[in-house]
What does this fold into?
Amino acid sequence: GQIKLDGRAPGWAVDGELQAGANRATLRGQLATTAGDDRWHVALDLPALAALQPLAELHPATAALHGAGNAALSGQLSGQLQTQGRWPALQAQADLRASAFQGAGLRAGRMQLTTQAGPDVDAPLTLKLDAEQLQLGDLRADSLQARIEGSLAEHRVTLDAQSPLRPPAWA
It folds into this structure.
């Protein structure tokens, strides 16, 4: 991969790309002189997560996630993340999709996460998670829908899960 830094204008422009096999990640951004003008965009196209398993094992923390009976990293992941501003006044949007995902003890046939958040209490706040065929350890769900909608000041949370686990029959 490569990363380019350009400091000719006020602030720094960043342009980077990493590739491992068929997997590709790009980073484009601007570290501005004024915090509110920072802008970042990350794009992921990871159709072969299994190819990243050796990299995941290089760091002790990520290696531990895949040890102790957890299956190796596999599946596909794609999406993008955009931010504007600088913490704590950060606006962010993300859209991530995974299929046949397996890693860190989590398995999912399909997942999609969409989120939007801003720094103001009245800024739109949205989180949508849709998933099918989930397994985390002994916990299983055929489907899961989680939603947070509104703002930090006033929001609604909903959760709908379908699980193969059933309560025991009454005697």
Q: What stands out?
A: The longest helix spans residues 60-66.
